[in-house]
């Protein structure tokens, strides 16, 4: 049977459907949040075995017999590896579920608010908060490198915020992979530079009306040319604050990856930036939406 992505298939779950985990927890499906190539994501109300209301959760569900089930298993493995990394989505529970003779694997995840993609649909992000997002992601990717994980899927739809916009988390580790950390012993260790490089293209999403700058996972030369293209248009795009960051990326892209240098280069784009600033620096209108 030809492969059909999960987003082209009928809903795996029905609204109101009740799922019971082996530990006695129940989950009542309240809506669909989205779908990808190998899984669909639903929002559900979680009730503990003792009847306690455990709030809302997100459930990522994929068919076990599908040829890409290995990708779901890899995502579970990666989520376990990065579970203590700040600003990454938390995996709460894993269980299997059978419906209409189809076996599903379910990942129960914490639920968040809007994605960055939703927030910037018809808006741009102010420079202080754009840098704030970049700094948080650099911290996350630095942790990932120490753990031997390459994320590989940074785009605005995979960056979620809490409802008050004070907390940001990275989601969807379906394309992530474990990778060697020593370029001297493995010629593919250079892939770690892809994650911080993607921050540049995410900045284009946040600061301009171009909302679909999702760079394909190609060769080093493709990334170099993409960075140079962005750099040439910084003045016109009102993004001169990124010049030092892009220059540093271009220096590092074929050599040693240094997150401290990348953070310094990004911070120099805004002399008034402080790591102690809250994401929301106004009690009224969130500056990220101004």
From TrEMBL:
<dbReference type="GO" id="GO:0005634">
    <property type="term" value="C:nucleus"/>
</dbReference>
<feature type="domain" description="Protein kinase">
    <location>
        <begin position="27"/>
        <end position="290"/>
    </location>
</feature>
<dbReference type="InterPro" id="IPR011009">
    <property type="entry name" value="Kinase-like_dom_sf"/>
</dbReference>
<dbReference type="InterPro" id="IPR000719">
    <property type="entry name" value="Prot_kinase_dom"/>
</dbReference>
<dbReference type="GO" id="GO:0005737">
    <property type="term" value="C:cytoplasm"/>
</dbReference>
<dbReference type="GO" id="GO:0004674">
    <property type="term" value="F:protein serine/threonine kinase activity"/>
</dbReference>
<protein>
    <recommendedName>
        <fullName>Protein kinase domain-containing protein</fullName>
    </recommendedName>
</protein>
<dbReference type="GO" id="GO:0005524">
    <property type="term" value="F:ATP binding"/>
</dbReference>
<dbReference type="Pfam" id="PF00069">
    <property type="entry name" value="Pkinase"/>
</dbReference>
<dbReference type="GO" id="GO:0044773">
    <property type="term" value="P:mitotic DNA damage checkpoint signaling"/>
</dbReference>
């Amino acid at each position: 049977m030809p492969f059909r992505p999960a987003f082209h298939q009928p809903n795996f779950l029905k609204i109101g459907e009740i799922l019971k985990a082996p530990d006695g927890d129940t989950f009542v499906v309240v809506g669909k949040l989205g779908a990808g190539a190998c899984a669909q994501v639903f929002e559900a109300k979680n009730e503990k075995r003792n009847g306690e209301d455990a709030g809302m959760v997100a459930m990522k569900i994929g068919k076990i017999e599908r040829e890409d089930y290995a990708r779901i298993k890899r995502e579970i493995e990666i989520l376990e590896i990065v579970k203590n990394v700040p600003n990454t989505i938390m995996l709460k529970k894993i269980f299997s579920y059978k419906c209409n003779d189809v076996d599903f694997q379910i990942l129960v995840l914490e639920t968040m608010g809007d994605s960055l993609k939703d927030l910037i649909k018809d808006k741009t992000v102010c420079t202080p908060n754009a840098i704030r997002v970049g700094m948080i992601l650099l911290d996350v990717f630095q942790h990932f490198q120490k753990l031997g994980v390459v994320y590989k899927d940074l785009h605005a739809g995979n960056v979620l915020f809490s409802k008050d916009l004070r907390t940001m988390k990275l989601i969807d580790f379906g394309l992530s992979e474990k990778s060697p950390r020593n370029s001297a012993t493995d010629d593919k260790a250079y892939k770690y530079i892809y994650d911080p490089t993607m921050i540049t293209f995410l900045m284009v999403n946040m600061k301009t009306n171009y909302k679909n700058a999702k760079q394909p996972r190609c060769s080093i030369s493709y990334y170099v040319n993409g960075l140079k293209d962005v750099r040439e248009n910084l003045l016109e795009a009102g993004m001169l604050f990124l010049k030092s960051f892009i220059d540093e990326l271009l220096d590092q892209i074929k050599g040693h990856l240094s997150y401290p240098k990348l953070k310094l280069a990004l911070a120099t784009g805004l002399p008034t930036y402080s790591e102690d600033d809250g994401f929301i620096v106004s009690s009224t209108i969130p500056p990220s939406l101004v």
